[in-house]
Design brief:
It is a single chain. The protein is α+β, with helices and mostly antiparallel strands. Among the domains are: about 100 residues, no CATH class; about 80 residues, no CATH class; about 55 residues. It has 14 helices and 24 strands. A seven-stranded antiparallel beta sheet has the order 9-8-7-13-12-11-10, with helices on both faces. It has a six-stranded antiparallel beta sheet with strand order 18-15-14-21-20-19. Strands 3-4-5-6 form a four-stranded antiparallel beta sheet. Helix 1 packs antiparallel against helix 2, helix 5 packs across helix 7 and helix 10 packs antiparallel against helix 11. It is flat, with a radius of gyration of 27 Å. The protein starts with a strand and ends with a helix. The N terminus is likely disordered.
Length: about 500
């Protein structure tokens, strides 16, 4: 950087940032225009008018995006001044935002397909807080982005493959088979239906759309129509989930340095590069949702200071913590054991029988409530809807029993050397492997029902995201044993909580 009397000179975004933004905006608008054009044609609009409105909208909006990008690139400057990262925006007025370098926990580099062709990368700075403040450079030269990461995180982040102790995992195309078993698959399918209906409503084409669908299925009974629509939504969801998986994880590589620092690269259209400093890693979380468990798959997240634990990995101010995508469980556990140097046992210490009984009671209560809600329209509106109540009872009873049994079997914990292992959940099951020295302490909670059953809930607190790790329905003796991992002071906490 050039240095002046006031410190380092301000640096601008790369000039090709405007071109990258315009090309990407045009591609997105064309992709969005296709379903709009289909909806207009179904609604009876003439092809010429469809081309005029859709094509004209793409041209006008692309031109608007170009103007916005030009102003944004010219108005944005950045620099590292002393121990702070400064971001300046000058348009009509001027504003400067400053971020201490010691607050930056991670630096994430991303590059979509257009930026990669132009040699650009976006830089996102993870601070580990929940304020929502965004520190992001929309595009700089890839070499500049790597230099920024090295300058902020230290030499360990810029080794570019030097001194790596080995590769922990590499993407296998066969892993794509796990994408459809995600719980998000039906959500994608239903979302596509909703989006198509919304687009059609913009042009008053919903009646025509429904008449077309009704005409195709006029001779089919209503229950079968519902099943057909659900099947179509499931097929769309499968296609969408596979496409998202491939885009997010194609080319995935996970490497590790001698000091424990992890380096992650992934992405087909948008290439992402992240580093997690070994000194900030406090453990891992093994995620095994129901669909993954039935197919022998699992995901892995790193528990570290300054990263995001949400599955929505495009947080504006933090970096995703997922380090192993849905993959064979053996791959996820091998990476977990390499990071924590602790085995991930299949069998943990079980919780008292009262914990299982509590889950059966809750599941039965939810089941009865759902049946009651379904019975309301059958009683008040249409008696023929009783088939829906009967079907829900026949299908829901075994499903409810299975989920309660699975939730009870999923409860467990274990202490191995300097690690604490916590496991809970059924539909969303997670196993945390946490370092003793990464825990700040334990919070103990007891509801009236837990007091009667002789149970309690422990919450481990940590500076690493998400900050809290729950272990529900443990016995008092088990709680004392777990609390002692943070020191003898927790014995007195337990005594006070029992006496209170």
């Amino acid at each position: 950087m050039i240095t002046t009397a006031d410190g380092p000179d301000w640096q601008r975004l790369h000039p090709r940032t405007t071109l990258a933004g315009v090309v990407l905006a045009a591609g997105a608008l064309i992709a969005a225009g296709v379903p709009v054009a289909i909806a207009l044609l179904i609604g009876g609009v003439a092809p010429g008018w469809v081309a005029f409105w859709v094509g004209g909208s793409v041209v006008v909006l692309t031109a608007g995006a170009a103007v916005i990008e030009i102003f944004r690139v010219r108005a944005t400057d950045y620099r590292i001044h002393g121990d702070r990262l400064e971001l300046r925006f000058r348009l009509i007025g001027s504003s400067i935002r400053s971020l201490p370098l010691q607050r930056i926990r991670a630096v994430d580099l991303t590059a979509d397909v257009v930026q990669r062709r132009l040699g650009l990368s976006a830089v996102r700075f993870g601070t580990g807080d929940q304020t929502g403040t965004e520190f992001r450079l929309i595009a700089v030269a890839t070499e500049t982005a790597e230099d920024l990461r090295t300058a902020i995180l230290g030499e360990v982040a810029g080794r570019a493959g030097r001194d790596r102790t080995g590769r922990l995992a590499t993407f296998e195309p066969a892993w794509v088979r796990y994408a459809p078993v995600s719980l998000g698959t039906p959500v994608i399918g239903i979302g596509v239906f909703g989006a198509a209906t919304q687009v059609a409503s913009w042009f008053d084409a919903v009646p025509t759309l429904w008449r077309t669908v009704s005409g195709l299925m006029a001779a089919i009974p209503l229950p079968l129509q519902i099943l057909i629509l659900l099947a179509v939504a499931l097929v769309i969801g499968v296609i969408g989930s596979v496409a998202l998986y491939v885009e997010s994880w194609w080319g995935y590589q996970l490497d590790r340095d001698a000091d424990g620092t992890l380096h992650l690269q992934r992405g087909l259209l948008v290439r992402r590069s992240s580093s997690f400093q070994g000194a900030r890693i406090r453990g891992v979380t093994l995620l095994e949702p129901l669909g993954y468990r039935r197919t022998g798959a699992a995901m892995l997240r790193v528990v570290a200071v300054g990263v995001e634990t949400s599955q929505q990995d495009e947080s504006k101010h933090q970096v995703s913590s997922t380090i192993v995508p849905p993959a064979p469980r053996s791959v996820a556990t091998a990476v977990a054991e390499a990071i924590t140097r602790t085995p991930v046992p299949a069998e943990l210490r079980a919780h008292p029988p009262a914990a299982a009984h509590r889950r059966y009671r809750w599941s039965a209560a939810i089941f009865v409530t759902v049946l009651a809600l379904l019975a309301v329209p059958a009683i008040l509106l249409a008696p023929e809807l009783w088939w829906l109540v009967g079907g829900a009872a026949v299908i829901g009873a075994p499903v409810t029993w299975f989920l309660a049994r699975d939730a009870a079997a999923g409860l467990g914990h274990l202490i191995i050397d300097d690690r604490v292992i916590l496991r809970s959940g059924s539909v969303f099951r997670s196993t945390e492997v946490l370092a003793h020295d990464g825990l700040l302490g334990w919070n103990l909670k007891r509801s009236p029902a837990q007091r009667r059953l002789g149970l309690c809930t422990l919450v481990a607190t940590s500076a690493a995201s998400p900050g809290q790790f729950r272990l529900p329905d443990v016995a008092p003796a088990q709680a004392v044993e777990l609390q002692r991992t943070s020191g003898p002071v927790w014995d007195r906490l337990w005594e006070r909580s029992v006496s209170g």
